[in-house]
Amino acid sequence: MDIPAQTDTAPVLLQSDAGAVRTLTLNRPQARNALSNALIAALSEALAQADADPSVHVLILTGAGPGFCSGHDLREMRAHPGEAACSTVFASCSRMMTSIVRLSKPVIAAVHGIATAAGCQLVAACDLAIAGEGARFATPGVALGLFCSTPMVALSRAVGRKAAMEMLLTGEMVGAEEARRIGLVNRVVPDAEVLPAAEALAAQIAARSPLAIAYGKQAFYRQIELPLEEAYAHASAVMTRNMMANDAAEGIDAFLTKRAPTWTGT
After folding, report:
1. How many CB atoms sit inside 10 A of residue 168's CB?
2. Residue range 80-120, pLDDT digits in tens
3. Are residues 116 and 225 in the same domain?
4. Labelling 60: which of 27, 135, 147, 217 has CA 20 to 30 A away?
């Protein structure tokens, strides 16, 4: 991936826009994009800004350098070993991961190289993921005496229980094709095509009604937490509200008259 290497003064997070698609690039390549306190804070802020920006319809999350994200910055954490400091790091990271799910806009992970521990969690938290053929995933904390408990939350919601438990209990690396098979990623492409494939998928989604996408994403995560009858009741209420929107009327009329719709996001 042709992304400039970080210098001492470079920001820990890069941002670029292409139409309605915003790309956020983790920019600590010398540390395999480990999630430092500064990077967690920058990513949290960038996600909130994107959610509030009506010109942004889809986000892509990727990493600079040879890997996607190696997890928490363990050197930084060992430099501040107290319980309060550790609690703050895990809490702020958990809030950031949760914000990806609660965001009204889809987030696509474009993964190359390694995505381990909280990096694997980051992939699992995203709505969609494109992986390069050489990408590898792991929750290796068990080998360090630190079980990947917070990565477990996102991982166990993205893949089956036994697949998640095997990754968590063994800490072994999982290749891109196996990650696709268990549902951690959607597609596997040649390494050089990861970002272009993510951009093409993002552009496809960005061409849809942003209001409908927001309704749909939020309803998906809400209903999946509910019992069957409650899930149907919630989805029915959401679909009714969506049906009353201008975009729904425009989309249906466009379909019936065989023309392209013009979305207003209302």
Report:
1. 20
2. 989 999 999 999 999 999 999 999 999 999 999 999 999 99
3. no
4. 147
